[in-house]
């Protein structure tokens, strides 16, 4: 008997220890967590009519998280996806956001950060409301950037490496490191995935035209 008001989190991770601890964390705040150790098993069991979201590990043997996300789209499974990965390099983050990911969280994750992201994903309507309210704040952060910091921000969120950006702007990699840190601070972004998300939200970059 399904409870229509029940919120479900699908947790997909081939690391059994990580899977168990994530399920325990979600259940500790009253959420129903359904664990899967492979993308295939999750896809076979996924019910898109549920009030649900998906916590998806990026690197898994067989079918990785990005492939699972693609398969969800082709099957019309429209659930918010939160990627979790120990290797959050820019091209992977960009691909995930490009394909419509809700969030991208690095392992080992901060428990509160994960729970906040899950709650946001489960209340997408509320999230859209708060996103429009946060747009003014985002614009203020962007306005606080110097022209040089903006020069660094764009290629950074487009997936270029520090070395490539240094060559583009004809300055040293060390200087790019400093600018990068300042951009993250001014934008109040703790992680690069946050910065990519902000740039997309602000319309600075088209997620379909990222590298």
From TrEMBL:
Annotated InterPro entries: CheY-like_superfamily, Sig_transdc_resp-reg_C-effctor, Sig_transdc_resp-reg_receiver, Tscrpt_reg_LuxR_C, WH-like_DNA-bd_sf
Assigned keywords, A-Z: DNA-binding, Phosphoprotein, Transcription, Transcription regulation
Domain HTH luxR-type: 138-203
Biological source species: Metapseudomonas resinovorans
Domain Response regulatory intervals: 8-122
Modified residues (4-aspartylphosphate): 57
Signal sequence extent: none
Name under which the protein is recorded: Response regulator transcription factor
Gene3D superfamilies: 3.40.50.2300, Winged helix-like DNA-binding domain superfamily/Winged helix DNA-binding domain
Keyword Transcription regulation: yes
PROSITE patterns xrefs: HTH_LUXR_1, HTH_LUXR_2, RESPONSE_REGULATORY
Coiled-coil intervals, chain numbering: none
PANTHER family in UniProt: DNA-BINDING TRANSCRIPTIONAL ACTIVATOR DEVR_DOSR
